[in-house]
Amino acid sequence: MKNVGVLGAGQLGRMLALAGFPLGFRFCFLDPTANSPASEFAPQIVAPFEPGPGLDELVSRSDVLTFEFENVPVSMVEPLVGKIPVYPPPKALSPSQDRLLEKQLFRKLGMETVAFRAVDSMESCLQAVQELGLPLVLKTRRLGYDGKGQKRAHSLEEAKAAFLSLASSPLIAEAFLPFDRELSLVAVRGQKGDCEFYPLVENHHNQGILHLTLAPAPNLDPRLDLLAREQVEALMRDLDYVGVLAVEFFEKDGKLIASEMAPRVHNSGHWSIEGAQTSQFENHIRAITGLPLGSTCMAGPCAMVNLIGSLPAIPKILEISGASFHDYSKEGKPGRKIGHVTLRGPDWRAVKAALKQCHGLLPEGVRQLPFLA
Amino acid sequence: MKNVGVLGAGQLGRMLALAGFPLGFRFCFLDPTANSPASEFAPQIVAPFEPGPGLDELVSRSDVLTFEFENVPVSMVEPLVGKIPVYPPPKALSPSQDRLLEKQLFRKLGMETVAFRAVDSMESCLQAVQELGLPLVLKTRRLGYDGKGQKRAHSLEEAKAAFLSLASSPLIAEAFLPFDRELSLVAVRGQKGDCEFYPLVENHHNQGILHLTLAPAPNLDPRLDLLAREQVEALMRDLDYVGVLAVEFFEKDGKLIASEMAPRVHNSGHWSIEGAQTSQFENHIRAITGLPLGSTCMAGPCAMVNLIGSLPAIPKILEISGASFHDYSKEGKPGRKIGHVTLRGPDWRAVKAALKQCHGLLPEGVRQLPFLA
Question: Does domain B115-175 have CATH number 3.40.30.10?
């Protein structure tokens, strides 16, 4: 068990490799985009995400296969089961790729969700408006990320327009939830069913893109952390899960409402590279290769700031006390995550001071977080 | 400033690259031994350590040059000054490569050393015995490491025999010091003369090879830590130093006696990867590329155990609470460092318990440290 094959070679794959090298693992990536971030220090097979010679080569070079994003076609990985260990198990992909199956699974396991309806016609759309009320959110069931593929409707007219603009795909309608804040839990499960959990963290999005994570979530009712762990452990058990899994929640009036899951390392867990005893990346590698999981203990609070579109002046960032910088080696482009900064401190006061300093250095447009106003 | 060229591609180079990748740097190595540890994820030019086409290629591919071991020939790097930034400055190499110049430099700067004499003839050897007393230690002035190239003499006869066996090289005789313990200080200096210091650590050698580092050195008089910092800061200033420098000391009756220096990242600083806010490797990269230095703060005590000769059962090692493993991707061979384990805990009690567990898993022969008896 030396060679890890990874579907996808973006920044998550890059950080997986950086966590796996010290443990003696070698990596090979498959990604349709040449010169992806992980290819800087590991071989990349440039091939589409489908069965074929590229995938065959990856399998032949690997002892275990994993993926760094959840939209790997199930038809690509399911036929591999039995030929090579694939973790997380492909059956975790289906509910992650379809918001309807995902919410149905959450409900089956007793996790609270917003009210939702499948929408596949104008008629079912109008019925959803009647049953869920307004405003509501229409989303494509598949392939939405970073706020793409969804529209909010405040009136019947807007609901109709949203349906027409999205209706080329099967949809889901969700009751609009004016939540108090967004949280997420990153967990990892080993091959023997052993689990470790990072603390619930607080996430701040801007136009659907994660901008800021505070770890652990400040001022959290510890019962919510416990509840989230129980729910995510049950979810992982149900899926025979192996590896890192992230679940996003809303907090509303002291309640936890499950929003979505990602069967992979997650942007809201990047702080763990410096902030936890074992990072989410190392724990994912440990899990899929059958090694014991590492402790998720934190030494102090952290903030993780995504660098989106273009990089700020890095020397200035590194002057901030407790700052670490991660460059994904990607070209800058509006809305694209090209790096992140982790800020650590002995307490929240120190971390928030560092955060203000950091945000002052970010390009206009990303810096106006209501959180820091 | 994107491309870092490194002379030497061993485990130190490997860990430099792993620390530099997240900051967006790319690496190229030069080493005469093909398939060196760093070559697993960065290009390696296989060439001797001398001026020639290999070095020319490295220079052409690099924006800054550094080295991962102190025995790079001065004649190789000195001609590069003015063509490409070389850090640490080549003039730091001479005293590091010659035990006589090194001790003379220490003395010049007011650092205490054992009494020593240059030995270049049987006559000067016998005179050293007379002046320094017995036992004494004869060492080659150059190219000694891991206990090689030195002999202890308890009698005039042994001194003569030691001289004859080593006399193909210029020698130094040192008064034997029955020290209380071995300490070392790892420091880093930036391009503007700013310095950061890791705490003094306690080192345990076995047959001349470092086996164990405890960080920070337990039960240390804080005045010694302060004194070591002052001395090393003066030393770095004297050398116009840029990068990480390590100085080994003996502690004897509450005094600090300087033993030797290494103008590079150092084995006794490996704990800093997990144990300090910024590792020695990242700080070396930050220094030589002109970035601000990072904090050297620790969250709790650490022990670093070298894995020598052959690897223990890694899954068992990773079951130890607070254990991290580093594989250098080197073939096992008696006396060869092929990996290390860092053990972290909230206090020394926890770290020592982990250490006992770890040592119980090491192959016979490396495990009998008097420290754990």
Answer: no
Domain ranges of chain B: 3-86, 115-175, 181-366
Contact at 8 Å (CB) between A136 and A147? no
Which residues of B fall within a CB distance of 8 Å from A41?
Answer: 17, 21, 41-42
With a threshold of 0.90, does the pTM exceed it? yes
List C-alpha distances in Å: A21 to A18, A240, B12, B69.
6, 27, 14, 22
- Express each pLDDT in A90-107 by its tens digit: 999 999 999 999 999 999
Is residue A285 within 8 A of residue A272, CB to CB? The reply is no
Q: What SS3 state is found at A142?
A: coil
In this prediction, residues A162-184 reach a mean pLDDT of: 93
Taking the C-alpha atoms of residue A255 and residue A36, their distance in angstroms, rounded to an integer, is 40
Q: Check if the interface score ipTM surpasses 0.90.
A: yes
B215: CB partners within 8 A, 6+ apart: B198, B199, B201, B202, B271, B272, B275, B298, B301, B302, B303, B304
Residues B3-12 pLDDT 10s: 999 999 999 9
Phi, psi of A129 (to 5 degrees): -60, -45
pLDDT above 90: residue B265: yes
What mean pLDDT is reported for chain A?
Answer: 94
pLDDT band with cut points at 50, 70 and 90 for residue B167: confident
Report the candidate in A352, A350, A347, A343 with the shortest Cα–Cα distance to residue A317.
Answer: A343
- pLDDT over 90 at B308, yes or no: yes
The mean pLDDT of A120-141, rounded to a whole number, is 94
Select the residue from B18, B188, B358 to test the A interface by mutation, using most A Cβ atoms within 10 A.
B18
Find where tokens 């969804």 sit: A150
**Cα–Cα distance between A89 and A79 in angstroms, integer?**
12
DSSP 8-state assignment for residue B3? E
A42–B41: do the CB atoms touch at under 8 Å?
A: yes
List B244's β-bridge partners, or say none.
B188
Q: What is the pLDDT of residues B202-260, one digit of tens each?
A: 999 988 899 999 999 999 999 999 999 999 999 999 999 999 999 999 999 999 999 99
Give the per-residue pLDDT at A34. 97
Q: What is the CATH number of domain A181-366?
A: 3.30.470.20
Report whether B202 contacts B53 (CB < 8 A).
no
Domain covering B3-86, topology: Rossmann fold (3.40.50)
The three-state secondary structure class of A337 is: strand
Q: List CB contacts (< 8 A) between A314 and chain B.
A: 23-24, 291
Per CB-CB distance under 8 Å, the chain B contacts of A301 are none
Cis bond before residue B88 (omega within 30° of 0)? yes
